[in-house]
Write a structure and sequence with these properties.
Blueprint (H helix, E strand, L loop, with lengths): L4 E5 L6 H15 L5 E5 L5 H8 L5 E5 L16 H6 L4 E4 L2 H6 L4 H14 L2 E6 L3 H5 L3 H12 L5 H4 L3 E4 L13 H19 L1 H6 L2 E4 L4 H8 L6 E4 L6 H12 L4
Parallel strand pairs: 1-2, 1-8, 2-3, 3-4, 4-5, 5-6, 6-7, 7-8
Helix pairs in contact: 1-12, 5-7, 7-9, 11-12
The chain binds 2-phosphoglycolic acid.
2-phosphoglycolic acid binds next to strand 8.
Length: 255
């Protein structure tokens, strides 16, 4: 099974009308994609976008968040079961914006991952260090700790169902991308950790995405690295031409 994937994270952008048009445009440009393509859309658009990708097995939809409880008095929240019933396959968890603006930590993210897996969703778990940590050369320790906490108490079978996205916070929305060497080094580090803790087969099959200012002009070289299996793409996923070009770059990485 291919590890390659390109996931778009639209964040709080596009109205339902704009979002539907964007998905149609991407699908028209790309046709049958050479890699798994996931649209991470605002909650209000999940059902409509899911309808558009239905019957196209290489396209899927991700929620950008979900609640850690199954149901109950949590006004404004969305549960894993609701997502699954709506046909949604993926959920982005642990994004740095959720950590920074909504005080999510790895203990909470761990609960969300467990809930998502129990319900049958595939979590796209985001980790990544801030600039001061990178400058202090502490990034492998910090990201390692994030991954360890987020995956704590999970079985190898559960971890095998997770996608990890390494997103250095200093590269998100800044136009500064990690170099291919920096991305590869961290992806290798994460894969080794997974191997040590959950077994070499789980590690070898795991999709590890890079995120942080992925653009058409840097995607090919990033995705050429042996442990960079594709991208989690913010800004460039909002432009059909750019997102289509990034999808093609991921498709050609192991020809
Ligand atoms: P960016 O965002 O591509 O705009 O840097 C990536 C992300 O936040 O997932």
């Amino acid at each position: 099974m291919s590890r390659t994937m390109v996931a778009g994270n639209w964040k709080m952008n596009t109205t339902p009308t704009q979002g539907t048009a964007l998905v149609r445009e991407v699908m028209e440009k790309v046709g049958n994609p050479p890699t798994k393509v996931v649209f991470g859309v605002p909650a209000i658009q999940l059902l409509a976008v899911q309808k558009l990708v239905e019957g196209h097995p290489n396209y899927a939809v991700a929620a950008q968040n979900m609640h850690q409880e199954q149901s109950g008095a949590y006004t404004g929240e969305i549960s894993a079961e609701m997502l699954v019933d709506a046909g949604i396959e993926y959920v982005i968890l642990g994004h740095s914006e959720r950590r920074d603006y909504f005080a999510e930590d790895d203990e909470l993210i761990n609960r969300k991952i467990i809930r998502a897996l129990e319900a049958g969703l595939t979590p796209i778990y985001c980790c990544g260090e801030k600039l001061d940590i990178r400058e202090a050369n502490n990034h492998e320790v910090v990201v390692g700790k994030q991954v360890e906490e987020a995956l704590s108490s999970l079985s190898p079978e559960q971890v095998a169902k997770i996608v990890i996205a390494y997103e250095p916070v200093w590269a998100i929305g800044t136009g500064v991308t990690a170099s291919k060497e920096q991305a590869q080094a961290m992806h290798d580090h994460i894969r080794r950790m997974i191997s040590n803790q959950f077994g070499s087969e789980v590690a070898a099959n795991m999709t590890i995405l890079y995120g942080g200012s992925v653009k058409p002009d840097n995607a090919t070289e990033l995705f050429a690295e042996p442990d960079v299996d594709g991208g989690l793409v913010g800004g460039a996923s909002l432009k059909a031409d750019d997102f289509a070009a990034i999808i093609q770059a991921a498709g050609s990485r192991r020809s």
